[in-house]
Structures are given as C-alpha cells and as structure tokens.
Amino acid sequence: MPPDSAPDDRLFGLIGRFYDAAADASGWAGIAGEIAGALDSTSAVLKLHGGGDDFRLLECTDNLHIPDSRQDWAAHWHRQDLWVERSAAFGPGRVVTDHDLVSPAEQRRSGFYREWLSALDIHHMVGAVFPADGDVLGVLGVHRPEQAGAYEDADRRKLSILLPHLQRALGLGRMFADAGIRQAFGEEALARIDAAVFAVDRLGRVATLNGRAETLVREADVLTLGQGRLALRDPLLQERMMQLVRACLLTATGPTEPPGSAMALTRTDRLPLTLFVAPLRAGMARLAAQPLALVMVRDPEWPVATTRVLRELFGLTRTEAVIAADLANGLSPDQVARRRAVGPATVRSHLKRILAKTGTHRQAEAVALIARSVAAFDRQAD
C-alpha cells in the first residue's frame, strides 16, 4: 500500500466514534465534520433516502445547514440529488467520485450543479450509498470546492475503510434504539397494568417488579418479598405457586402451555387475591438472560377507575364520576350514599344520568363498562 493511502490515526479515531455513537445517538453530532477533516475536505453529509421522495438528513457539516426560509428549496435538491441517483446505479457499497457519475458537459448544464452545488461551494465528491434499513439507502458524501482538486484513489481507499464501520454502527444504533423503545414500552405498560407483576426465576428470586407489586408487598398480609424472593405466607400455597413457576419455566423455550397457571389467595374478612403465572421467554427478559416466570396478582378491592378519566370518557360531572367510580368499585347505591354523606335518592338520580351518558340501561352494565374501560390505566390521583 502506498504511504499516502495508509490509514491514519484520524480514520481509527473515527471508527471508534462511529461505535460510540451507535450506543449513544448524541455522539453523531459533529461526526460529519470529522469525516470531512479525515479526507481533507470542506463538507460532508450523512442521510437516508427511502422510496419515492422520502429522505432524512442525519448529520452534516455546519456549512451545509440551510436557513429555515429556504428549507423547501433544500428539500427539492435533496430529493433530486443526482449523485445519489447515479451512485445507486453503480451498486450499494461502491465508493465513487463525481468523475464516475457526471461528465464535464453534464456538469455545465445540470441544475443540480449550477443551482444547488454552486450555492454550497461544492464541486468534487467522494462517497457511496449503502443498504440501511429495508429499501432505505444510507448516503455518505464528502465534498470539496472546484479549486481544491479532484478526489483520487487514496481518498477512495480511506472512505472504503470507514464505510463498513459506518454502516455497521448505524445498524447497531437502530437495534439499540428499537431495544430502548421496547424497554420503555414494557416499563410504561407494566406501570399502568391493573395488576401486580413479578418476574421471578425458578427459586422465586425477583428480577424485576412493577409499582403495583411494590404496593401489594407493603399492604398485603399473604405474601412477602424477603431476601429478594417472592413467597406466600401459607406453606401450601407457596408450594403450589412454585409448582406453577417451575412448570412455566419448563415450557418457556417451547410452545406448550403449563398444566394449570392460576390460583386464589384467600384473606381474612376480605375478597381473595387472584394469581396467574405465565412464562417469559429467554431473551425477552430485560434483566436476565434466562427464562423467567411472570407472577401476576390482582386485588379485586383495588380501585378500577379514576374520576378524571371517567369525566373525559363519558362527559360525567365530577359528582357523577365519583359515584360511578364508587359503583364500579363494588359499592351499592346505599353504601355510596353513606360514604358520600348524601341521600339514597340523590345517588339514584345521579345513577340515571350516568346510565344515560354511558349508553347503558342497568347499573350492572354501567359497572361492567367502567370496570373494563381504560379508566383503570390512569395512575394520576383524583
């Protein structure tokens, strides 16, 4: 390899920056300038081109930023990027220069050169397109003004060193972003689900749990969380729960469902808790690389609706929403009257309006509608 084409420290530093940016998307900021500097150039752009006219600018040097007042003009020329069109015809992953793509005669008559490139003081280019995601092409272009001279084979080789690492880093970045979205989705769903959820291993050790589970551990007298293990105070119920957990873990890597997965936890002078166990397959668990079981517990005495959401859903007044929530939480009209210090006739009058606004005809229908509505997902205090 000739001395002038040997990789320099700037290239190795850039490769490291690519992978740092894959892990932390904020690391892409300023990377176009470093790419331009590594190839002794004045500008660089990294963008995505999808089907039709779709494009997305990922990163560019400061001198390629276009004022807001001219964004429509810039978008037009990004969509009409002659270099991207011609590079794609050469094939993804092949490093090309402007001399490969456009003849001098075409440069002189091309609006792409005369209007777009001349405004940016760009004339020479070395770059490539590469597969990014599905039918989307990634585009890397590095540029110089005309007086700086054309790109040579040494420049092609430098970009050829960078390109596969850039492509891989962008792919990893998408994977990390997708994983982050899935994690955020799971955490938000767990926070709002109307059940206590524990993820446990075969010994009952808790890998993670949601807020409902933390509340249940504090308030319930039938289960404990000692030394990081979920346990039921009744030894027979504890053995039954662990049997369900072990059965789930045996089926976690296959399609077979465990034989039986639910049980009731009786309580003195209160309605029983209900417990359900389901497998969480290896690789789906956020905090463990082993199969886990989800132990889900519901308390029938937990509020099933908040007045804020009931008012939004059905147009109830504040008083109607309070009474509707009480009814959905299992109180009779007489019990609501005593709890709210109003007369039974007042409660029944509000109930008639609740039935009309919810489109139901009987109290049981309204209670079922409210109990199964999205009002249970609201975690804001009334």
From TrEMBL:
SMART domains: HTH_LUXR
PROSITE patterns in alphabetical order: HTH_LUXR_2
One Pfam family recorded for the sequence: GerE
Gene3D superfamilies reported in the protein's UniProt record: Winged helix-like DNA-binding domain superfamily/Winged helix DNA-binding domain
Domain HTH luxR-type: 309-374
One annotated GO molecular function: DNA binding
Single Gene Ontology BP annotation: regulation of DNA-templated transcription
UniProt cross-references to InterPro entries, sorted A to Z: Sig_transdc_resp-reg_C-effctor, Tscrpt_reg_LuxR_C, WH-like_DNA-bd_sf
Protein's name according to its UniProt entry: Bacterial regulatory proteins, luxR family
